[in-house]
Design goal:
Strand content: under 5%
Largest sheet: none
Order of helices and strands: HHH
Helix content: 55-70%
Structural class: mainly alpha
Radius of gyration: 14 Å
Distance between the termini: 20 Å
Length: 83
Amino acid sequence: MEKFGRGLVNVATCWIELPKRMAAGGYEDNPWTGIGGGFLRGASLTLLRLGVGAYETLTFPVGYPNHYASPYEGMEMPDYAWE
């Protein structure tokens, strides 16, 4: 059920990546390019989190292989957008 819950939460909150990455980009040396780059990175991470969340939601009855615990593990991405 943890897989199902995490998938649903990530589908519902994937949009958080966009303002989060734009705000982080605003702290760079040039805020305008930082915000633009943050927008691009946030948009790509939004789609990635949406896709992985949908995958987890649809495949929750099937367990993970024994050698890893989460699809987020190899992506250098936290399990939830607000982390």
